[in-house]
Amino acid sequence: MTTPEILATQVDLFGLMTVLGEHLYSTPFVALRELVQNAHDSCVRRRLEDPAGFTPEIRVVCDPAAGTLAVSDTGAGLTRDEIVRYLATIGAGYTRKLREQHGTDDLIGLFGLGFLSAFVIATRVAVTTSSYQSPDTTLLYQSRSGERFSIEPAAARPVGTTVTLHLKDNFRELSDESALRARLLHYCALLPLPVYVGDDPVAVNAQPAPWRVGDAHPARARALRLDFARRLERRFEPLCTLDIGPREGTDVRGLLWIHDAATYGTSDNRNLHVYVRGMLLDDDARELLPAWAGFVSGAIESAKLTPTASREDLQRDPAYRAVAAAIAEALVDGMKQVAEREPEAWRRVLLRHNEALLGAALCDDRLFELLADELTVPTSEGDLPVAVVQRRGQGKLYASLSPRGGFEEVLFRALRVPVVVGTRYGALPFVRRHADRRGGTVIELGTAAGNKRVFPPADLPADQQAFLSNMLTRPGQRLIAARFAPAELPLVLVPDREAELKRRVESDEAAGRIASGALGLMRMFTAKIDATVDADLYVNLDNPAIARLLEQRAGIDATHPGVKLLRALVAFVAGASEAAANEAEGLHTALAEYGRAVCELLDTPRPAR
Ligand SMILES: Nc1ncnc2c1ncn2[C@@H]1O[C@H](COP(=O)(O)OP(=O)(O)OP(=O)(O)O)[C@@H](O)[C@H]1O
């Protein structure tokens, strides 16, 4: 048996850097975050190991002319041995050891990788450091690629560390102070230690997170929250804020805000900043917000969330799910509170996000209860609350499923009853839920069941039925005798939507528009549709003109001006429907017939009164 050869795995540092720079982090700029985080951890270390007279401070200074960026801290510093063992050893760090020793939750570093990301944005990295363990010694670490490095004595400095990056050309914007400040504001908003930029005496994170501030006057607390939201929100003006307070089973705290910009039902402008131990981990954790909350942004912190190695994503573990559940709860509770305490803001929320809220109310029963009387649904008479639609429909909620104004419009405009536009986002399900919860009947116009309710059929002897049919219908129309309101409306033509579809699918034109496979399938379906009737003509027996027509039927034929006028009316009401919209010819004939009938009536001497 031969002894196996034992070899050490080689690390291609250049390859590893490419993975880090291009794949592990969403943007190489997060190197800045990593350096600030190291400075923070170093201050925590000093507080634990050498607290006497220690004032923690982190300062980030840039020099646009030189293209450099330097992150300084007053932390523990590093000895020569520590530089080699921790700073320059990938996957190792003192931070992890410190956490294990002290069981502290304050430290951020975990993986021993972060420092490496500096080489993704810098051509050269220089670190001057003086350890509290040997304050008389200052060392300079330098490296171009992270692969090889030098250590040499340097001019004395106070205990602490300064990491200077000579930025690559494409990352030079970090040497611009305002760009730097904007990024730091996001990264460090919740960091408990002060982070200064340049020689500014005020820290970028001087304003504490609102949920960490003790009891403030309600108006001041509200202003603080809005101010915090404004600083973090990049796209929208915050309209109002909602607190995420402590809840059982999770440590999540934070703030949500509703955008002061209109959304549609399907708009998804969700955004969530997630901080873990004060550092921004994920600036787009939208999945933690409920899917219906397309109009909400926020910032949260939780020490229970575990970052993935990229530290820009979160592990989808039970803690993650608990945080998501707590956020959803807080959002619903928060909306209730805004409704109660901030009527002006609430009015704006409803105005801006009515359509999205229709969808939201369907996803959460408590939201439904909150919003049922506040939201409006689109109707033929404009946007109206469901209760109003119901009142004007005398207890019934009429909804149309047709995308364009059809017979429903003619009929219901005559009745002055609003019809819900059932094809718009959330409208019909919301109305149905409303009827379920608050009572009421939804009548879906255009469906067989709906039509039966709107036009209750009436008995008519066969000969009278045949007479009306001969006088008023053209081929393809079926006459149905009915009694319906308003009595002033003599007839309504209701196109058969399935027959309409059959005609469209089977037309030559469709062959060009629909992929042939799909067309074949659709034709199999439409072949079963009886298209001999393409519209039902509901004739209103309660209408005086129809009643008179029936009374005088013995002396009337199709040339009678009264019949011509009614036939023209059929064409006019058909004109409002989609099917007939293309039948310009039919409308034209009807207009001519209408004109002739009027002339005949004018020419007929009126009986003396
Ligand atoms: N500014 C600093 N002051 C003192 N020590 C530092 C500093 N920066 C880095 N170090 C040391 O170098 C080690 C490695 O840093 P690195 O950023 O690579 O990893 P980490 O911070 O431990 O973990 P993570 O990859 O999760 O950030 C740290 O654990 C710390 O011991």
Automatic annotation (TrEMBL):
Alphabetized UniProt keyword annotations: ATP-binding, Chaperone, Nucleotide-binding
Signal peptide: none
Keyword DNA damage attributed: no
Transferase among keywords: no
SUPFAM superfamilies linked to this entry: ATPase domain of HSP90 chaperone/DNA topoisomerase II/histidine kinase, Ribosomal protein S5 domain 2-like
Pfam families: HATPase_c_3, HSP90
Single annotated GO MF: ATP binding
Record family assignment: Belongs to the heat shock protein 90 family.
This protein's name: ATP-binding protein
